[in-house]
Design brief:
58 residues; mainly alpha; UPF0337_stress_rsp; YjbJ_sf
Length: 58
């Protein structure tokens, strides 16, 4: 498993937590940051998956 997949998953989890806390306390900035972190995590996870696929084909 590529390290990008691991880091992407962690960013996604961190983003979900930030988003939830932002909603709970009514902090729209924190909620937006959480959504951005989740999006970054998904992208990084996808890049890691692509790297894994390419590595397995070689």
């Amino acid at each position: 498993m590529d390290k990008d997949r691991i880091e992407g998953s962690m960013k996604g989890v961190k983003g979900s937590i930030k988003e939830g806390v932002g909603k709970a306390v009514g902090d729209s900035k924190l909620e937006a940051e959480g959504k951005m972190d989740k999006a970054e995590g998904k992208i990084q996870n996808s890049v890691g998956g692509l790297k894994d696929s390419l590595r397995n084909k070689e």
